[in-house]
Structure formats: structure tokens, C-alpha cells
Design brief:
Helix content is 32%, strand content 16%. Strands 5-4-3-6-17 form a 5-stranded parallel sheet, sandwiched between helices. The protein has a 5-stranded parallel sheet with strand order 7-14-8-9-10. Strands 11-12-13 form a 3-stranded antiparallel sheet, with no helix packed on it. The chain is built from 18 helices and 17 strands. It is α/β, with parallel strands linked by helices and 484 residues long.
Length: 484
Amino acid sequence: MGKVTGFLEIDRQVHKYQPASDRIRHFREFTLPMSDKEVEKQAARCMDCGIPFCHGPTGCPVHNQIPDWNDLVYNGDWDNAIRNLHSTNNFPEFTGRICPAPCEEACTLNLEDIPVAIKTVEQAIADKAYETGYIRPYPPEQKTGKKVAIIGSGPAGMAAAQQLGRAGHDVHVYERESRPGGLLRFGIPDFKMEKHYIDRRVEQMAGEGVTFHCGVNVGVDKPVAELLAEHDAVLYCGGSETPRPAGIPGDDLEGVHDAMPYLVQQNKRIGGEDIQSVAWPSEPILASGLHVVVVGGGDTASDCVGTAFRQGAVRVTQLDIRPQPPEKENKLAVWPYWATKMRTSSSQAEGAQREFQVATLEFIGEDGQLTGVKCCEVDEKRKPIPGTDFVIRADLAFIAIGFAGPISGGVVKELEGKLDIATDARRSTNVSANDLDYKTNIDKLYVAGDIRRGQSLVVWAIREGRQAARAIDEALMGSSVLPR
């Protein structure tokens, strides 16, 4: 695939970033696009490796046919490259921007720390497709007469809606918030993905016959029972939205917040909307001129860091209870799986102070207002080490340690006692269904995405939505030509 000797002749190159001093002054995307010729050279590096681990099962959750579209890009056939990419991934412009790229970890060239720039090529293909007008509505040739409702318009719900709409079903998407996209729109900052990409997909899907109903909180404004009665199938893609409880004393102080209300507010500000959210109501939260502490080491924590810098925070400190990982992994022990190694996000690179192997003991304050975060070092079992206590000044603190399942209101509340809820090893509560038929224990009700598998990546949500769409199509029609 690609140029036979390309990996020997061409150095790995990926998108460059605007300097941190420039990009923290705005909330727009800050990657600098590569020219078509540069992208074609990077695609040429894809080697004929025999077994392409990049597209599964250890690499890409949606099984993108990476060697195939790399070869097409190398040969300048961008139209067929996007056709190939769309055959497995409905939204490559999303994943090309925000996926952590497990495909690159699984690339054979990663054994030498020079994997093919798969994510960069994927984003370039999607952006090129928009430029050339390839991404436009593709309505079905005939309708089936079947009607399907989808609750939630995040990546799982959107992927399922597009697949089912193209299969000829009458698809209705119900979204609690004011605009479609779920956490793609309201959770992921604009500097990682601007929201006009979502708007373009929604416009495309509307042209294909999908109907969006925004501002409808199913289970509150419209009963689930009514949806089940009106539709031949209902797919619940509500996401994993309940913050994992931290149990840290002092979390009721003024200035201590869960991460998501903060991110949602800023995204709504940029979108010109009322900052209040149905799921995350909160007073205005701004970091301008403040000392900020972020508890947690994942993507959501990193998004809080980048947002705080752009709002003008004086100092941002990120606390991670895990030990500092090694700079380089043992390839022969972990490849082609995702490796634990030191990774620095673009937000962290903007000046965050990172503390590893540190536990948050208490939020401390005066007159009900946060003034500091009491911490200590921990051992390999995450037990506090006596005598290592210290206090970090903090005017504002965010708890970003993950999510524990769907919100308790709405659909879950209405179906309480009927819906089978499973609890996993991390005490997350997920709606039960397998990954073959995606059926719940309630007739005609299906479930997909984070609400089924637990908090995960956007690319996993897209896969779940696509697979659930096939399962629904097969159940309604007796057979399906939709891919899994």
C-alpha cells in the first residue's frame, strides 16, 4: 500500500500547531493544514505490512480500511478515498480531529516510533471532500414505511440516524438540548473541533430525510411510552453523563465544580446561546484572573485546562493520582495495543503544571469560598504517604474523573423498574444490551453508545450507532445491507 519504499524515504510529518502564545487568545481550531502534496507523501509511507493491525481489532474501532485509502490518496484519487472512508465511518471530520488514534499506536511503523500519520490523512480526506462538494445529501431511492425514533443526537445517535435514514426508514431524532450534537457540540471545546462541522452533517442528514426535534427531553417533555407506541423501533443513545462521585471533603465550597458544566457553558457562549443547560444548570463559571486546579488526568481534564487558559487563568495545575508514566514504552511487550506512556496534550503544553501520583485530600476554603486544595503523595497502591501533605492555592477547581452512567432523570426515571441496568467493575451503571442485536429487555427499545458500554471514545460511539442501525434494520425488514 502507498509507495513500496515510502516509509524508508519519507519522514513522518503531522499537522503543526499555532504557537501556544497565539492559540490561547482564541477558541478556534489551531492546527495548520498541510497541502495536498504533503498529505499524499504521508499516505505514501503506508507500507505493505502484511497484517494491517491499524484497522482492527487492536487499532480502529470502526475498522477503517486505512491501507486502502492511504493508497488512494497517494495516487491522487481523493474521491474514491472518501468513498472508502465513508464506508466504515460516517463522520471522519470528527474522528480526524478528536480521536486519540489507536490506529497509529497499532501501526507496524510504530515499532520504530514513526507510525503513518493516519489521523492527519483522515482529516485531510474529509476536509477535501467538503471542498469538492462530495459531502451532500444522499437520500434513499425508496422508503420502507417503517418509523424509527432515536433519543440523543451525540455521535452514536447521529451515526445510527444517518444509516437508518439511508436505508429508507423515517427517522426522528429527539435531542434534549437546543441543538444537535450531544457532547460533540457541548462537551468538546471549539479549539479541538469547531461546531460548523456538526451543522454541515445535520444539514446533510436533514436532506436525506432525518428529522431533528431539539429541546425535547424524552421522559420529561415526551414520554418514552409514547415514542414506543408511535414508532416501529426506538434507539436510546443518551450517553454517560452522571459525573463519577469524587467523595472529596469540601466539594460543596463555592468555586468547586464538576468539569462538564464548565465546558458546556463555554461552548454555549461561543455558540451565542444561553449558558444554562438542561442537564448541567450552574451559575456562570469563568477562570479569568484565577488560580485553577483540575483534578483528573484524562481528556475532559485536559479540555478544562485549555479552556481555563483561554479565559485568562493565572495558573492551572492538573492533579493525577496515577504515577508519571515512562517517556517510552516497551514496544515488544505492548505493541500493537494502546501503550501507557507519557503523553502531553496540546492544552497541557500551553503551560499547565502537572502533578503525578498525588491524591486530592480536601478542598479548603474561607467563608464558604475555595482558597486551596490539600494534597499528598501516594504510593503504588494509591495510599497516602504520611508527611507528604501540601496545599495548592486555588480560586477555582474542577473535578474531572469520569462518568458513572446515564443521568437518573428522563428515560431512565420513566422506565425505572422495567429497564435492566448493569453495574460494571468501576461501579458505572449502564443500560444492558449486547453488541449483536443491541436490544434491551423492553420490546422495540434498543440502546447504543456510552449508555451501553460506558464512557468511551467518539469513534466507539460511531461504531455502536452503526451496528445498532443494522440490528434495527434487520429486525424491521428481515435482512439488512447495512454494514456492521
